[in-house]
């Protein structure tokens, strides 16, 4: 029995259908990150789970019981909002304690629990301040403390790190998973940053077009995206997409790329004759010294050094652009001019042109059948 | 002498009612060359926006001078400065369509209607707002408003372009695309520009030089690779880079041909005189305490290292692993471009090389040495 | 920005002084009149130097007016008491009714809510004279003429729209997430209303209450038509100074000073809130 079970949820706001039949299951103790572009309904989903407003259609079950008809104060969940939503006329201590004062806990117990969670989040020294006097980082941790203090078994975190500056954000990204696991709640964490989604989640649920397009482990989402929409959301820089038409040449599948012929692994044989988009992640493209089978002649047009890597802008014969990224530092910067790039055959992705679905190569000569990634369409 | 924009010991002090004065910008001096793109980078409250607003004329200068193309401008009204600005808060005129808003910026110049129209179309194509040119500001999204505001600044001919977080509301994909186009436009037309951002990737991608600010003070003003390889002080070192540089307080022990850094509450790293360059040793001098730093990408993981540490988290981000280990009571982050099979709680060996060390003075936090060279 | 020149600054000061004199002059004059006898007031030419007297105030407070035609009973202090009673009760009732209503309008967008809200607001704009005649007929039938209850009820026409208008704006300004957070923390919506919404809208409620008090206090027409002698507030009570033996300017002036002082002091005390409360309505987007 899943801790959170969402089936076929629909919600429309002002003639805009935000959720169109969304389904998702979250197991007890799991951390699932909810990821997708802005405006796609992630916050709406959390509010529906919290009971702030009802869905237009579909069901929500919490702990195995239907939650519809249950008002927010009776759902027993902890929630942290993007904009903190701290009570401005109360101190940090009172803010956190508000999650306990509703249940008949005595004052001593409340005080003890508030102190404990404040110690955990390192805000013990600012408990007496009003929200106005706290920095953004402290506000964020106070909001989190408020969500955690009653030991809720279900936690909803709506992009709580969004308004926090980059350095603190990174630190929290390292500390949060351990913290959440220690508390042991079932967590649904919304974020717009794919790195955060991958770093924090046991599974990542990608929300696209009002539905969960894919819900999988971070590694699988990155390496085996179910369609091009999902693939595009992960990776920085975003992956290259080039139109190709695989052909069988001497029994093996091949594509033409920038004037070169690249042989694909045998599992792509059944793709021959169709129209596809070739997905190449920038970090899988390597610049090599000399042409060889599996390389493409390019012109290195620009090098953008970022802090941990360099982004190379390449153009192939025919003018199409490719972005490659190179890790770390080089002793001398690359010079623009003609070059060759090697395509990693095992890391490439192929997507059907019309539907955007990923073509799954057959293994060991067997016909490929749709591997059902752990989506919610059970 | 081709400096176009020049700031000389500019100060900005705010006097909010009922509270003590806020010294937002302290004695800032910097020169921007003609055609250069400069980024003001820093966390919120560091003074970058105040500086920008002083350059554009929306804040008075408390002290100091600002010159543009050899003309003193700090006392002039914004309209008299020949500066084009794109605001963080969009600020489009509600009764005009997007097209009219952008064209409004050209009203002062004597351009023919067809030329105005052509320029508006061109800049709209650049920021991809052509489909909404005839809509009103209240009917478009925040991201579109921001792009329209940017277009309105770029369409003008000005001596300086001032952009306040020009792409803050846009999604990462769109930002990356627009950044490339924006850079090309600015470079092709040799448009001198200065922009504010808190996003390092944006600063790196767009700017020729980056001015890092903190607490109203200019920390360092240099191209990206200098900031990364030779940060002037601890603030710049730990601000630049994601993940930021790992820093630790350490005691220095010199012993017959060997220098050892003993981390407070942590392990020690010793280097023979053949590893630690003489000028570095000289830069350290007689100091007993220093701060040492090493970039996450330079932490060596794996066998062959003397020290081990317990893994606190191991996150795979698709093209790199971030591994955090408990060292000296803090977290040491290492980045690897391969997947690292280390479970939480496991002990892994790690090491640092002398050439990857950055050394800072404990009290002044000024950099002493980077790798094999003195700072 | 200190860009204005000396000339501009002098001009500004002169202009401001003229405006202040223009507005304050009647009040100062009346204050002076209240310390003068009738003869001094009516002297020609009018003079600024005089021997102050407290006779006018004594007459008001004691309730006896000495005129050339004899002694008159003045019920001024009773009128003052009526004003206090009527205004206070009206405002308290309007707050009890209006604050929850404002919350409902702010938070629950039910069918026709905008139309209903606008209609209620429009009562403020309608001139009282419009409803006076029908009202007086109804009041007679209901037996509400010349009762405190009747007047307090009618005063809702003045106080309620104001409270609704101002307080709704304050409630709308509270981010719904703050209330949601309190609900999710386990509290019922009623508790959320009292512990979160009302305290956070406090300044607005106070401003609205203060303003309503001032407007109720100043009302003339309703009290004139719907109440008689012993229930009348100061606004109507001032008419009593138009006597058969002439207008007792001195007492009128003293009566005015006594009538105006409470609300003036209240407004001065709470001026910051008043400005905030009023401008909020204007600036809402």
Quick summary of this structure?
The complex is a heterotrimer of chains A (378), B (375) and C (285). Chain B contains 9 helices and 22 strands. By secondary structure, chain B is an alpha+beta fold.
Structure in words:
The complex is a heterotrimer of chains A (378), B (375) and C (285). By secondary structure, chain A is an alpha+beta fold. Chain A has 2 domains: 4-227, Rossmann fold (3-Layer(aba) Sandwich), CATH 3.40.50.300; 240-352, Nucleic acid-binding proteins (OB fold (Dihydrolipoamide Acetyltransferase, E2P), Beta Barrel), CATH 2.40.50.140. Chain A has helices at residues 42-50, 92-101, 107-120, 136-148, 166-183, 194-200, 218-223, 228-233, and strands at residues 4-13, 16-26, 31-35, 57-62, 65-66, 77-80, 154-158, 186-191, 203-208, 211-216, 240-244, 247-249, 252-257, 260-263, 276-280, 286-288, 295-305, 309-316, 321-327, 337-342, 349-352. A 6-stranded mixed beta sheet of chain A has the order 6-7-8-3-9-10, sandwiched between helices. Chain A has a 5-stranded antiparallel beta sheet with strand order 16-20-17-18-19, with no helix packed on it. A 4-stranded antiparallel beta sheet of chain A has the order 2-1-4-5, covered by helices on one side. In chain A, helix 2 packs across helix 3 (107-120) and helix 2 runs parallel beside helix 4. The longest helix of chain A is centred in the middle third of the chain and has 18 residues, at 166-183. Chain B contains 9 helices and 22 strands. The mean pLDDT of chain B is 88. The two termini of chain B are 28 Å apart. The longest helix of chain B has 17 residues, at 172-188. By secondary structure, chain C is mainly alpha-helical. Chain C has 2 domains: 6-61, no CATH class; 76-283, MetI-like fold (Orthogonal Bundle). Chain C is 72% helix and 4% strand. Chain C has helices spanning 6-33, 38-42, 55-62, 76-107, 113-122, 128-142, 148-173, 176-184, 189-200, 202-218, 221-226, 234-237, 249-269, 271-283, and strands at residues 64-67, 70-73, 242-243, 246-247. Chains in contact: A-B, A-C. Chain A binds chain B through residues 37-39, 136, 165-167, 170-171, 173-174, 177-178, 192, 194-195, 198-199, 218-219, 222, 232, 234-238, 281, 283, 304-308, 311, 313, 325, 327-329, and chain B through 43-44, 141, 171-173, 176, 180, 198-201, 204-205, 224-225, 228-229, 238-244, 297, 312-313, 315-320, 322, 324, 331, 333, 335, 337, 344.
